[in-house]
């Protein structure tokens, strides 16, 4: 299990055929990467230089759209995850 | 439905023929992208590093002009949206 | 009517022949853009990350000089405006 | 023994065959560097310009994944370490 | 008359022959621009993001040296001025 | 004697043969510069823009490892020193 | 006489033959500029955006070493000075 640090969020990227959930897809031409995903784990939030912690605006289970080329891909056994900054997440698909 | 995060705003971009509303158009030559739109959804606002939240200066339904190449395009079924930062919005067309 | 957001200011750019008002012209060679204008509308001001609002130092009707290549041009029907940041404005012509 | 300064963290990089622990591997093609490691030592934390110290979110013994090309490699006798900034660490592998 | 905004300062640039006043000249080779001038008008000062105003350290009439390529040139009728940021001014010639 | 200013630290760089002390060496290929050194003098610390001084985390006599290409070399008679920022220092070798 | 503004410092650069004072010389190959000098005048200090003034850590008469290519050269009659930021000064030679 991955426990992200600070303002980082672990996402499981939705493959092409999963696009029907909420029907959301970034206008992704073939060459662009899929950019909708499920939130798997959230960090404690962003530490400001005043020592405050700004809690994340997303929670585990949310379906989100995010900046196309953001984050670092991680393989955990057969599963593939993407670790992004909260600021890379554009919106929650409700 | 898209719920934008933080200082992000969801816009529905006005196609060329819709330009009569308020008659506003960025001096857009053929090659430039249309830059007026309707506000569809607003985030809670910008978190400052003092933990304050600066609420957005636009609301759902406003017609706005914005920086030409700003934001990320999102397709939701047949509809196309643009998710921008509030700071990319230049003015409200009243 | 354009209502600018935050620290943005709407200007009506002065064409070449209007230069006599205050006689101010940036040393503009033919190729450079005219850079004096009239203030048409002002935003509420700049939000600092302490939640303060710093009101604009210009008001509607002021004639100003501004950084030559600043802002975004907007056409409203037959009229052409420029939306700049307050920080792009150099001085008021009194 | 290395005592890292401020927000720096000393890692012992996991070689390829050690990947089974938690089975975590960055999607590392041959050319990319391994990016999972064990925390060997932690600095006191990040000093903010308000004089606050934000303690590190990792502790000695944690297994972590980190940004692929981050940090400076250090040889201590036969052992090889990597000194990174805490912000280069993506997540703890639990 | 030009009333500069914020931390801006209006200077009248000293032509080559005026260099005897205080005898100050930047080691200006032919190709470099003259960089001593008289202060004609000062803005109210720099607004910090705490809402404080840091008053300018120069006053009308001061002779100053400034960074060679700083500022924007402005023609007011036959006179030529330069609008710089206070931070572009190096020193007052006493 | 060199008295460094602010957050600066004076180091005496360890030549190749001195590497045995603590046996620490950056994985330095021939072309890279040695990066372990002894602390000779420390500044008073970093001034934050709140007027606080963050004292240095190293003291005279510490053996440290630092970023390979950091700092400015200084010759004092026959001795050679390197003046770095405290932030360029990675860790203390204990 | 030059009165530097803010965090600026006026230096009189030491020519090559003056190098014996404190014997300090930056490892200056022929092509590099001399980088030791005497402090001639100091500004009031750096204004932080909290309205505090951080007084300079050097005083008139100090001999200092500074970053090689920093500052702007100024000729005052036959004398040549260099105006640098305090942050460009590395250390005081005691």
Structural account:
- Chains A, B, C, D, E, F, G: Heptamer of 7 subunits arranged in a ring. Interacts with the chaperonin GroEL.
- Chains A, B, C, D, E, F, G: Belongs to the GroES chaperonin family.
- Chains A, B, C, D, E, F, G: Its main location: cytoplasm.
- Chains A, B, C, D, E, F, G: Keywords: Chaperone, Cytoplasm.
- Chains A, B, C, D, E, F, G: It is found in: Cytoplasm.
- The structure is a homoheptamer of 94-residue chains.
- Helix content of chain A is 0%, strand content 47%.
- Residues 17-21 and 26-33 of chain A have low confidence and may be disordered.
- In chain A, the strands form two sheets. A six-stranded antiparallel sheet of chain A has the order 8-9-2-4-7-10, with no helix packed on it. In chain A, strands 5-6 form a two-stranded antiparallel ribbon.
- The first copy, chain A, is globular.
- The first copy, chain A, has a domain at 1-15 and 52-93: 10 Kd Chaperonin, Protein Cpn10, Chain O (Roll), CATH 2.30.33.40.
- Chain A contains no helices and ten strands.
- Chain A has 94 residues and is mainly beta.
- Chain A has strands at residues 2-4, 8-13, 24-26, 36-42, 46-47, 53-54, 63-66, 72-76, 79-85, 89-93.
- At the C-E interface, strand 3 and strand 10 of C face strand 1 and strand 8 of E.
- Strand 3 (24-26) of chain E pairs antiparallel with strand 8 of chain G, so a sheet runs across the interface.
